[in-house]
Write a structure and sequence with these properties.
single chain, alpha/beta, seven-stranded mixed sheet, six-stranded mixed sheet, 7 helices, 13 strands, globular
């Protein structure tokens, strides 16, 4: 299974990075984990056909994590080239938020039943659910965004990937992380406490206890980018590819 970092930036593009978006690929199946506002541009930059994506799962409903779906869906319905069905999984309120955002950006642009087939599924905390080829278990996080925020524990192609999304420290992260083949973890700042986000020092202290197999730090603001040399863990960069064997 291959994972490509399509975007690993924060909401404000610190370091010139695209908004959050990770591509999982195996056996011809392509899945996005989050689809931030700049993701359609990023997919095209890295040569990934947006129409080849069959499944998208969302951690939470901030624009830098789901806003790219507006552009992806608008292109698909406007030019009518897409034939592959699309399944979107997200927190409660995802369908309504997508429709409202589409109408704000492209009035009249929301099409609930496009010809290619669109399914929107909404999940609840710690209730496992099958979404496309994925087995997903969401864990409640603490990150105010007008809808429940989640970390996602994803089982795909025989591997387990956990992505924290954005959050302060909550103890449910321990269960979400355990025995993951890859933990993708936000590390927004180095040490200064920031409401709704994890710091590197918090993450490093907890990782020494949990010890996942592989770690990738993401969603860094400028404070953290200025201190990359102090990190003991790999740092995501746009375009990087990880092979999970």
């Amino acid at each position: 299974m291959k994972i490509q970092v399509i975007g690993c930036g924060d909401a404000f593009g610190s370091g010139g990075r695209f908004n959050t978006c990770f591509l999982l690929e195996d056996g011809g199946q392509r899945i996005l984990v989050d689809c931030g506002a700049s993701s359609l541009v990023a997919l095209k930059k890295f040569g990934v056909d947006p129409d080849s994506i069959g499944t998208v799962v969302l951690t939470h409903l901030h624009g830098d994590h789901f806003g790219g779906l507006i552009f992806l869906l608008r292109e698909a319905t406007l030019f009518k080239r897409r034939t592959k069905a699309l399944v979107i999984g997200g927190p409660e309120g995802t369908a309504e938020r997508l429709e409202n955002a589409m109408e704000a950006f492209f009035p009249g642009g929301w099409i609930a039943n496009p010809a290619f087939g669109l399914t929107i599924m909404e999940y609840r905390s710690e209730e496992p659910v099958s979404i496309g080829p994925l087995q997903v278990k969401p864990y409640s996080m603490r990150h105010a965004c007008g809808a429940p925020p989640y970390a996602l524990r994803i089982r795909f192609a025989g591997k387990t990937i956990t992505y924290t999304g954005d959050t302060e420290w909550v103890d449910s992260l321990v269960d979400a992380w355990k025995e993951s083949d890859l933990l993708i973890c936000e590390s927004y700042v180095y040490s200064t406490p920031v409401n709704k986000h994890l710091s590197y020092e918090t993450v490093a202290a907890r990782l020494s206890e949990i010890n996942p197999k592989r770690v990738l730090l993401t969603h860094l603001n400028q404070d953290m980018l200025d201190r990359l040399a102090e990190s003991k863990y790999p740092i995501a960069r746009d375009g990087m590819i990880i092979d999970l064997h």
